[in-house]
Write a structure and sequence with these properties.
Blueprint (H helix, E strand, L loop, with lengths): L2 H13 L4 H8 L11 E5 L4 E4 L1 H7 L3 H4 L4 H7 L2 E2 L2 H8 L3 E7 L3 E11 L5 E11 H34 L7 H13 L6 E4 L6 H11 L7 E5 L5 H9 E2 L12 E2 L1 H4 L4 E5 L6 H13 L1 E2 L8 E2 L3 E6 L3 H7 L4 H7 L2 E4 L10 H16 L4 E2 L1 H9 L5 H15 L4 E2 L6 H4 L15 H20 L2 H8 L3 H12 L3
Parallel strand pairs: 7-14, 7-15, 8-11, 11-14, 16-17
Antiparallel strand pairs: 1-2, 1-6, 3-4, 4-5, 5-6, 9-10, 12-13
Helix pairs in contact: 1-2, 7-15, 15-17, 19-20, 19-21, 20-21
Length: 477
């Protein structure tokens, strides 16, 4: 028995005339909890007989001010809220619960009745196993440890992904299935068409395919068909001979398609091409030859063609704005990239990868709290991977503290103009849609007001309800 428990035994033996077996049961329970020596003893009527020196010191109570007084009176005066001794006397059984002592300290207290031979309570022995201050300290240390584990686990996952997937984050089942398909076809000449919302990572996946193919040592040429002016895109794609047009390079220029020879040609936003260029692209795919503007020589080219679009090309074909024959040429291996909200398993890993990148770029050492990671994983991300990347860069360069918390999220991120896109109606019933909307309201309010009390006031609900909702949706409490 340690010194503290020996002291407890002395205190108890000095006032309670019961056998030692009972005392050992009090201070050395079978569950191996070692009790503090904060002891409070009354008789069966609730009159205070003795308190230990540690009890006096820790709770700032002088023994001569309460010995001889009734715990029922002390409870009425607010010394104890609630009084565990009084509860034990009322219920005639062992009680374990928290009580506030002297208005300043909260402790987990155990109260045990000691019965005489006639089954009446002779004494009540109360002792504190742990104070709430200690609990809070342990909780804080636990949260810090959890954050550290989260940080290093995420970093390890990023390193594994780099070694396996060439910087491409793939953890969700849907992305794993897509990657498996692409692995089988990477070294073929089959045309690949990526479809999906803006910002889902079509360009990154195209680059990953190139890196794993037998063309990896050859050029990867990316052309965004939506950003080049219509009057210039033909010359950019096919090149031109000298004197082709006013202002042209006097020596001529090699086009992007020719630059991609023996490598990979990635045409992003393919749905933005004009019908005339669609015709030329169709001929290119069929013959694998090009002619520069104002040129007469056919130039053979060999490349793997990957295209991407966020448009519905079937509808474009029906509307007459996209050639049907070109669509079928491109639609040999079609891959629909799911939006980020449908592959939540990738979100934290992507966030950590972006964090690592921007930490290196800006010479920072930021890391995410666990609560922030939980929040990011549940956010609907209407802007997909691009929105996530932009947010992480913004947090890295604008936040002062190394630890990035949920409070650090910018106001406009939670109150942007695209809130109507946050609720995904696909394959959801009314109850699921209502829950999605409720989640968004809770997240918006918490990001703005920071506490469950303020959220309750903002939304007109009780604090208990607000705390429960926060725990449900973002694991805040």
């Amino acid at each position: 028995m340690d010194r503290n428990n020996q002291n407890i035994m002395k205190v108890l033996h000095g006032i309670v005339d019961v056998n030692s077996d009972f005392l050992y049961e009090i201070i050395e329970p079978k569950n191996n909890v070692i009790l503090a020596d904060e002891i409070f003893i009354t008789d069966g009527e609730g009159i205070v007989l003795r308190i230990s020196e540690t009890y006096e010191k820790n709770f700032n109570i002088k023994s001569n001010t309460i010995i001889g007084k009734s715990v029922f009176d002390l409870e009425a005066e607010g010394m104890f809220k609630p009084c565990i001794t009084a509860t034990v006397i009322r219920q005639k059984k062992k009680i374990i619960t928290t009580q506030t002592i002297n208005g300043t300290h909260t402790a987990m207290t155990t109260g045990i009745p000691v019965f005489d031979e006639t089954k009446n309570i002779k004494y009540v022995v109360c002792f504190n196993t742990i104070t709430m201050e200690h609990v809070n300290s342990i909780q804080e240390k636990y949260n810090q440890l959890k954050d550290s584990i989260n940080k290093y686990t995420a970093e390890l996952m990023v390193l594994r992904q780099k070694n396996t997937y060439h910087d491409l984050v793939i953890k969700s089942k849907s992305m794993q299935n897509i990657w498996d398909t692409l692995c089988y076809t990477a070294n073929t000449k089959v045309n690949v068409l990526f479809t999906g919302e803006t910002g889902v990572g079509k360009s990154a996946i195209a680059k990953a395919i190139h890196k794993m193919s037998d063309r990896k040592d050859q050029p990867f040429v990316e052309i965004n068909c939506a950003v080049i002016h219509e009057n210039l895109i033909e010359s950019e794609l096919f090149g031109y001979e000298k004197g082709a047009f006013t202002g042209a390079n006097p020596t001529g220029k090699i086009g992007k398609i020719e630059l991609a020879n023996h490598g990979t040609l990635f045409l992003d936003e393919i749905g933005e091409l004009s019908l005339s260029l669609q015709t030329k692209l169709l001929q290119l795919i069929q013959d694998k030859t090009i002619e520069r503007l104002s040129g007469y020589k056919k130039i053979e080219v060999d490349f793997k063609l990957i295209c991407a679009t966020n448009k519905n090309l079937e509808k474009e074909v029906e509307a007459g704005t996209f050639r049907r024959d070109l669509y079928y040429r491109l639609n040999v291996l079609r891959i629909q990239i799911p939006p980020l909200r449908e592959r939540r398993a990738d979100i934290c890993l992507l966030a950590q990868q972006f964090l690592e990148h921007f930490n290196h770029e800006y010479n920072k050492n930021k890391y995410f709290s666990t609560k922030l990671m939980d929040f990011l994983e549940q956010h609907p991300w209407p802007g997909n991977v691009r929105q996530l990347e932009n947010l992480i860069e913004r947090l890295v360069i604008t936040r002062v503290n190394e630890k990035i918390e949920i409070f650090d999220l910018p106001y406009d991120f939670m109150h942007g103009s695209n809130k109507e896109t946050f609720i995904d109606k696909q394959n959801k019933n009314l109850f699921e849609l209502i829950e999605d909307y409720e989640r968004q309201l809770i997240l918006d309010s918490y990001c703005l007001h920071k506490t469950s009390v303020a959220v309750a006031h903002d939304l007109g609900i009780s604090q208990a309800t607000a705390a429960r909702k926060l725990s449900k949706y973002i694991k805040i409490v």
